[in-house]
Amino acid sequence: MAIVLGIPRYLLGLAYIVFGLNFFFKFIPLPDMSGDGKAFMDILINNNFMLVVKIIEIVGGVMLLLGIFSKLALFLLMPISVNILLFHTMISQDSPVMGIILVSLNFISFFAYREDLQGIFRGGFKE
Question: Residue 100's domain spans which residues?
Answer without folding.
Answer: 6-24+33-113
